[in-house]
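Worked Example 4.2. Consider the chain below.
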Amino acid sequence: MLDAALLSADQRGMETAAPNQAPDIEIRRLRLSDARELAPLISAYNQSLFRGPPGAPDTYYAEQLLQDRTAEVLGARLNGDLVGFILFYDIPDLWTGMRCGLADHIYVDHRHRRKGIAKAMIDLLAEESDGRGWSKLVLHAPRNPGTGRQLYEKVADAADWRSYVIRFVHREPDNRERGVDTL
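Applying the procedure from the previous section yields the following structure tokens:
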């Protein structure tokens, strides 16, 4: 299960002989009690994608996300501090009749990148494939090449499809909070 994993630098495939040895990473599924720590990371993630000033951390939204019935969130901690997350779904795979994992958002605080944290979260999620009956783990990668995209190209193959988005920008983000059914 995804309840907890402690990965050393050796397990992440990192060099351990360096004088500034990488600290151990604790990765586990986040709970409602982690919302206050997750909120600033969500804000920083959005700022990294959309530029401009970061939005204020929204603890209420983080609580909603951690209680979502379809999404799951793994968190990575260094020295007790939450420094990264991966949001994923367990969904049907129509091609195989099995299930598959879909990692939609992966983020590591910029101060802790290049330490193997994102890869460790992906590796841990991939290890769950047998227990969940997944035929594959799909990683949604950023469209623009950059440091984040290099990881995806390193750990996975290009998919057989291209995704497209229909944006509904006219909708208010708080409709669900008001109990408005959009279907």
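Residues 5-155 form a domain with the Aminopeptidase fold (CATH 3.40.630.30). The chain has five helices and six strands. Compare this with Example 4.1 before moving on.
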